[in-house]
Write a structure and sequence with these properties.
The chain has 213 residues and is mainly β. The protein starts with 21 loop residues before the first strand and ends with a strand. 0% of the residues lie in helices and 54% in strands. The radius of gyration is 19 Å and the shape is globular. A hairpin with a 2-residue loop joins strand 8 and strand 9.
Length: 213
């Protein structure tokens, strides 16, 4: 996102596998698509590289905490019935350094990133219409992941859940009853005429967590 220029850049690439085209390797967890690549090195450090006509990035990501396995017993449920679920793990705090270039102008960047890898068995259940998903890094070195699976009647699926990750990387699984989320504003797109939530309030009373943005 280029805030000053009010521009958002996004790229996608689909490629057939092959030595000179795209593929993956379990030896160093490398995934590549022509000149795009993600590679894991020593101590689980990750390297991201990508280049297109108007955007380039090269980033080095160093885990500040061990990865966590989301859900209960390695299963993150997405619906109260059926087999709608996923395996899902996260690096919730990665120290990130490198550069991003837009139209040939490089800018050094640094901060913290969050990496998710999720793979599952099914898409939305018949009575579900979508979801709200939150991944939040708090300034007390804790992280919060929450999701709400929206039902057709406007309520939330009881299978909605989340996690709170402590300073030392310990995960506490959260049930829907552990948190409350509500939208505190709305925004309507002039282009699509669709109304979107704008701003959120999140409360976890038992953990003394109260967030508003």
């Amino acid at each position: 996102s280029d805030v000053n220029a009010k521009q958002f850049y996004t790229k996608a690439r689909l490629q057939r596998p092959g030595p000179d085209f795209a593929g993956s390797s379990k030896d160093n967890l490398k995934v590549w698509n022509l000149n795009w690549s993600a590679t894991m090195g020593e101590k689980e450090k990750q390297f991201l590289k990508a280049k297109s006509n108007d955007c380039t990035l090269e980033l080095e990501l160093t885990p500040q905490k061990p990865l966590v396995i989301q859900g209960e017993n390695g299963i993150s449920r997405k619906a109260s019935k059926g087999d709608h679920a996923s395996h899902y793990y996260s690096y919730t705090r990665l120290k990130t350094e490198g550069f991003v270039a837009i139209k040939g102008k490089p800018v050094e960047v640094s901060g913290f990133s969050w990496m998710d890898h999720e793979f599952g068995s099914n898409q939305l259940d018949d009575n579900q219409v979508g979801w709200d998903w939150f991944s939040i890094q708090l300034d007390n070195n804790k992280e919060l992941m929450l999701y709400l699976m929206r039902l057709k009647d406007g309520s939330y699926d009881p299978a909605s859940s989340g996690s709170l990750i402590s300073e030392n990387g310990r995960l506490t699984h959260l049930k829907l009853s552990d948190y409350k989320i509500k939208s505190v504003g709305k925004w309507k797109s002039d282009k699509s005429k669709i109304e979107y939530p704008m701003g959120w309030q999140i409360d976890l009373p038992a953990f003394n967590v109260h967030l508003k943005d």
